[in-house]
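A reminder from the course coordinator: this example appears on the midterm review sheet, so study it carefully.

Given structure:
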């Protein structure tokens, strides 16, 4: 009986202990509900930032913790965004989180796997709690080549004609915006290319939302604002950046400026406008009888376009050709929005540049061993162990000591080999930073940045950046494939004064990488005072950056002119013989060669420099609107002030900074420009552009329709002394594409015989040329194949003395 009682007590004790250790908190499962909405009414653009809207309801006791949201802007980029949440008992709170993006490649996972996770306390404690609610969503992905237009209006239907705009570089998708859809982080507006404000008081938005709009414009967004009776005060924080003041009202009767592509004049005769002064640094785009009606002002990389009339009032908004005019207005915008221009061959930024930048950045000098040193150690080992040790021991008659001498010497040489490769890895973590940046001439820098870490111990590694200077994502070189595996690698947190990115559970001697955009508002500039005379570049370049440049160059076309070193605050005197009589914008070499698997330490610098120059050419090709030459420098100074939390890292920095500049002096003599020296812009009259810069670069994918191509000569060759003597058009003959050249004198297009592969115009060239521009129309007639070859121009002329 006693034994039976002991057995019973023992079993009950085991059951009791098991129940204690198996109990888990259930309050979160039953009391906290999270519901997710994302994008603009469910629409997001693959690989671009967007807002996610969270509604959190707490039916239980007070809760304090971390909310983490998955993101993956590419198949090889991703992480989690963390925010702190305080949920008093019985409350419902709404949060908006701006994410770096989601890729269409992993879109199918979003419908079945929750993208939101809740943790009690700090997320680093890994105490995830269960929640209820809808934490998945089914986004509609906007095509990357489509232009996204947001509308801020009290009545978005006033601009319904936007839905049928034939805009430049593809179709237009229109999204009504409201106060609740405007995030406080400009990253959440990343999916938009334009925002149109139609009699909507921006003062309805809170200050952080208005600043978000301003930051979005600075990063390259285009805001188009119509006139409003409320005046400039209604634009809130943007008031001082508006191109025109609003002082009085009048009626405009000359409406010819609304006519596009020789279409008929409007069927109304009057248009109310608000007139005022053109503000500082603004440019008049359109004026009627000396009255400005449309003006623009550049703000950072973006701009504000302001009209003197309301964009949504009748009868303008119901005019049958209003959509054509709006499309023309959008096509005139001068945006350099990096997420948009970084798309290449239908691929997004992270898809492209994870190979161009990250691969080379993960080459650490401590990983590159000297083959000669290793072979010397091995040779010494075998020479000592085999013959020399044998000879010494034999002479000393101490061969019995070989049993311990051989292991000791082996250990010594093994340590030598180990320390040769590991001495730098053991001492401290290492960070490689690379950046290719454009200087705007007003102190700002923007461009592409990458950082790679090599750990020296296992654990967490946190990068810290100044607030707002880095917008990017952790990268997995070989692609993790799923949003869950991508998200687990790192967590992004936006603090009050810094942005932090934490890589979790990094292994010994492992690499982790970041890639993204950087924007520094007050960095410095090159003060360039150069002129041309008798095929010589002379003048001075002053370094007003806080960095020393190891080398400074002038880049024109395919040529670079090496000028030498330039320390901060110093001035470089230039006196270089030119190989041409003029300077051009850099010509981007589209081919980027790989690198061998065995790279020496000496080769790493050259390879990284080549990559940075390639990226700079890519950026200049898309951002250098006036086809200006550039000055650029290579610096090993830390341009981006990154650091590791609680760790001292060995930093290796390499950055390229380039700045377009205008040349003065006398340019004269003959010139020949080929297609690489001529900037082009394709606009849609009717149809749709599927993809640009395909194949050899002069190919384009078009829907059946009608398109206009503008060819722009370099700015320095546009003058009264320039005489165009010959125009050659090279086309690929096709039965399904017609080409026409615009005659500015006759104000009509004339057909080009597509049977001739090369057509030469050498008489009355002035008929086809105005203000440095040639125009060609393409009529694509069908047969299903979207491939079209754009005409290649060769222009010969002379700048007279």
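Designed residues:
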């Amino acid at each position: 009986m006693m034994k039976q009682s002991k057995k019973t007590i023992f079993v009950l004790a085991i059951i009791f202990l098991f129940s204690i250790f198996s109990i888990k908190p259930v309050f979160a499962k039953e009391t906290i509900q999270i519901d997710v909405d994302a994008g603009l009414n469910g629409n997001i653009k693959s690989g671009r930032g967007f807002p996610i809207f969270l509604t959190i309801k707490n039916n239980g006791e007070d809760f304090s913790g971390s909310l983490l949201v998955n993101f993956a802007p590419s198949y090889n980029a991703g992480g989690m965004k963390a925010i702190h949440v305080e949920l008093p008992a019985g409350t419902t709170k709404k949060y908006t989180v701006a994410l770096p993006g989601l890729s269409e490649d992993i879109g199918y996972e979003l419908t079945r796997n929750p993208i939101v996770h809740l943790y009690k306390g700090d997320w680093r404690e890994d105490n995830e709690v269960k929640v209820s609610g809808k934490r998945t969503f089914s986004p509609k992905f906007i095509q990357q080549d489509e232009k996204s237009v947001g509308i801020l209006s009290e009545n978005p239907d006033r601009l319904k004609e936007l839905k049928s705009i034939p805009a430049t570089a593809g179709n237009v998708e229109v999204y009504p915006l409201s106060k609740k859809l405007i995030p406080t982080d400009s990253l959440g507006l990343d999916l938009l290319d334009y925002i149109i404000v139609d009699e909507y008081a921006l003062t309805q938005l809170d200050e952080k939302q208005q600043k978000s709009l301003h930051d979005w414009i600075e990063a390259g967004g285009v805001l188009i604002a119509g006139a409003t009776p409320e005046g400039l005060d209604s634009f809130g924080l943007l008031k001082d950046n508006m191109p025109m003041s609003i002082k009085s009202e009048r009626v405009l009767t000359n409406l010819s400026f609304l006519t596009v592509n020789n279409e008929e004049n409007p069927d109304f005769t009057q248009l109310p406008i608000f007139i005022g002064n053109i503000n500082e640094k603004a440019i008049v785009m359109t004026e009627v009888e000396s009255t400005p009606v449309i003006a623009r002002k550049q703000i950072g990389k973006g701009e504000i376009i302001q009209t003197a009339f309301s964009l949504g009032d009748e009868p303008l908004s119901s005019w049958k050709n209003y959509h054509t005019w709006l499309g023309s207005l959008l096509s005139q915008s001068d945006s350099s929005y990096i997420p948009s221009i970084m798309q290449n061959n239908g691929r997004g930024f992270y898809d492209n540049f994870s190979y161009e930048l990250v691969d080379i950045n993960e080459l650490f000098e401590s990983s590159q061993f000297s083959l000669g040193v290793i072979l010397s150690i091995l040779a010494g080992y075998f020479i000592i162990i085999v013959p020399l040790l044998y000879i010494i021991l034999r002479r000393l008659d101490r061969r019995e000591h070989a049993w311990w001498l051989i292991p000791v010497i082996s250990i010594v040489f093994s340590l030598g080999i180990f320390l040769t490769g590991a001495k730098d890895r053991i001492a401290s973590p290492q960070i490689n930073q690379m950046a290719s940046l454009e200087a705007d001439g007003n102190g700002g820098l923007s461009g592409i940045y990458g950082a790679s870490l090599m750990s020296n111990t296992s654990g967490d590694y946190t990068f810290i950046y100044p607030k707002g200077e880095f917008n990017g994502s952790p990268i997995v070189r070989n692609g993790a494939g799923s949003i869950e595996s991508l998200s687990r690698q790192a967590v992004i947190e936006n603090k009050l004064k810094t942005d932090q990115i934490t890589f979790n559970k990094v292994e010994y001697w492992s690499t982790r990488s970041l890639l993204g955009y950087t924007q520094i508002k007050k960095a410095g500039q090159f003060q360039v005072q150069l002129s041309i005379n008798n095929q010589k570049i002379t003048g001075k370049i002053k370094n007003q950056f806080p960095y020393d440049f190891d080398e400074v160059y002038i880049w024109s076309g395919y040529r670079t002119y090496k000028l030498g070193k330039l320390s901060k605050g110093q001035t470089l005197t230039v006196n270089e013989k030119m190989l041409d009589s003029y300077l051009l914008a850099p010509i981007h070499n589209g081919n980027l060669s790989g690198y061998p698997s065995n790279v020496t330490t000496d080769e790493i610098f050259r390879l990284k420099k080549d990559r940075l120059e390639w990226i700079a050419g890519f950026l200049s090709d898309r951002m250098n609107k006036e086809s200006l030459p550039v000055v650029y420098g290579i610096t090993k100074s830390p341009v981006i002030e990154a650091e590791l939390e609680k760790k001292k890292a060995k930093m290796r920095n390499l950055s390229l900074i380039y700045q377009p500049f205008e040349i003065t002096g006398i340019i004269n003599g003959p010139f020949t420009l080929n297609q690489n020296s001529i900037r082009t812009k394709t606009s849609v009259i009717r149809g749709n552009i599927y993809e640009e810069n395909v194949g050899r670069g002069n190919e384009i994918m078009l829907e059946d329709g009608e398109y206009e191509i503008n060819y722009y000569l370099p700015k320095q060759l546009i003058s009264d002394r320039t005489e165009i003597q010959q125009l050659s058009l090279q086309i690929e003959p096709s039965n399904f594409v017609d080409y026409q050249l615009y005659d500015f004198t006759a104000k009509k297009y004339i057909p080009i015989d597509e049977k001739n592969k090369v057509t030469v115009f050498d008489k009355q060239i002035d008929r086809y040329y105005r203000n440095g521009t040639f125009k060609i129309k393409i009529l694509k007639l069908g047969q299903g194949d979207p491939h079209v070859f754009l005409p290649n121009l060769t222009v010969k002329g002379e700048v007279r003395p």
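Residues 25-141+459-506 form one domain. Residues 371-396 form the longest helix (26 residues).
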